[in-house]
Amino acid sequence: MNTIRQMNERYVRANRTIEKVRVSSGVLWKDLFVYNYEGVHFRVFDSESKALDCASGHCDKTIGEFVNETEMDNFLQSFNLTK
Questions:
Q1: What is the pLDDT of residue 21?
Q2: How much is the pTM?
Q3: Total structural domains in the chain?
Q4: Does residue 83 fall inside a structural domain?
């Protein structure tokens, strides 16, 4: 099971953020970016620029989309870090 640690959070608008999270297991780790839309919709990206594009209305190439934090956390805890 992976460990998830929030590295930073950036507000792009009121109630909309991009969070940088580090997903790690042992010596392996990957930084992912979560676009949080008003706390009711979460999209995960592999780069900050893709998350910023989503904040501008162009949500392409997501790693995952979730309707609550529990779903997203479960996904991140089992995310394959060797890809």
A1: 98
A2: 0.92
A3: 1
A4: no
